[in-house]
Design goal:
Strands 1, 2, 7, 8 and 9 form a five-stranded antiparallel sheet that branches. This protein has a four-stranded antiparallel sheet with strand order 4-5-3-6. Among the domains are: 123 residues, no CATH class; 89 residues, no CATH class; 176 residues, no CATH class. A hairpin with a 2-residue loop joins strand 10 and strand 11. The protein is built from 20 helices and 13 strands. Helix 12 packs antiparallel against helix 13. 25% of the residues are buried. By secondary structure, the protein is an alpha+beta fold. It is 62% helix and 10% strand.
Length: 582
Amino acid sequence: MITQMKKYTFLVFHRDYESFLTQLRDLGVVHITQKAAGLIEDDEQLQAALQHEDELRRLLKQGAPDQLLAERANIEQSIADAKQAASQAAVWGDFDPARIQQLKEAGYTLRFFACSTSVFQEEWGIKVSEKEGKTYFVNVNNENYADYENYATLLPSPEKSAAQYMQEVEHLKGLLAAANARIEAWQLANIEDIKAQLKEARQNIDWQRVTLSTDKLAEGSLCLFEGFCPIDKEPELNAMLKDAEVYYEETDPEKEDATPIKLRNNAFTKLFEPLTGMYGWPDYHEFDPTPILGPFFLLFFAICMGDCGYGLLLILIGTLIAKGKLKIEMFDGLGPIITVLGVGTAVVGFFLGTFFGIDLYNASWVPDALKSVMIKGNVMGYDIQMVMALCIGVFHICLAMTIKAISYTLRDGFRATVSTWGWLLLIVGTIATLIVTMTFSLPAEVTKWTLIAIGSISALGIYIFNTPGRNPLINIGAGLWDTYNMATGILGDTLSYIRLYALGLAGGMLGGAFNNLAGMVLGDNPTWQWLPFVLIIIIGHALNLAMSALGAFVHPLRLSFVEYFKNSGYQGSGKLYQPFKK
């Protein structure tokens, strides 16, 4: 739900302006209306403050100044280079570079080569080693070079032995430890101070934006600005304003106002508010979609996962994350919602009859009493789970259209939404009539005249009165175009819900495939085969869990953002309530 707001207009004498802003900031309940970004962000002082804030954020994220980080990076690169050089020098054995230099001074020229072991011949030079199908040899004074110049590759003369390079690596590791110690010392001395500076910079930016959004009147002697306060914080603000020497007006927000929104949901619904934010927060005069998005996203996720065992794993993972026992950065703070999704998956997975890829409905060890509540079988030759997915989709879209009709009527009035109600009556009324007819076996004549009445009333709203006061011919043309869009859109939207069935089926089949593969490896009289069996089960189901969870997140999100939001008329162009405060 969206918390009701009150709009406040403040008129302050310029001498009292800063002290009044300080009072408002200390109270921390008023969202100050800011001017368009182009009128504010171009201010040079604000730009400097924003740049300073970015520098502090970057420094805090890096954890050290560029100089210290560059020093550490150079040492790490030197270690990597030395290890690579050691690997290259290792093929020449443990030699003394000084002896090679002495041989050169004595008139001997050593050349180092590598060639395929299959083509190497002893007369080409002195063989030193073999590695990964290659032979490394040394030639003295270019003897017989013409015999192998097309088969061998000339390599650089090693400057140091592998042992010497590794000694260099150990020395560099000491330098790296010292560099890390300097970084840690810098962090201990500066991080908290930077955090404090960042808070101060943020407050300074907020203050500047408020002052830039204030209009100066009467040659600068009066300051005028607007703000919004949640109705539950209204008594606190009014109590402060009674003692303040300012003029203010309190009104209800108008449609054209940029009223911020503050969501007010229960603990369960609040878990799904980030999903709403991914699409866009509701406008103040819209409805909050979260109370409907949450339960349906949970249901869709559970159907797409479709496995009771995976649901139990999600419950375990979510609980460990919530209690801080399992640290996964990308899931930080998401433990509760993972747990809830796991509960939904476990329940739905049981009714779908799948447990870690095992078909519970056909398992002999599952009691018949449990099998009787599982969703299995066919409806008119189609898998009941596929039919169920389509039925959920039809209900979801009908619910969206109902919400659209109600919210548009509350916002614009019934006269402006006749066409919307006409489509709602046609689609929902027809579906309801057919359901009642099949359930209670209504006479065909009753069904026919009911459908005729629904169609006639709907046609008037869709084609004649869709825009009252406009030329009827134009209304008919607009209705025909609307009909084309609805006919193609509704069908495609409904078919999209088949993905719920397809993803659940694919995950179950893949899990069953891993079980079958592990069973084939195990055999009838297993001994050492238990090890690969366990590895296949663990790795296979971990992989399937990860892929299924990704699909179960993305596709329900798409059904919510595309099919549901489109048919409900949701725009998501609102701005969150962010009070001016410390």
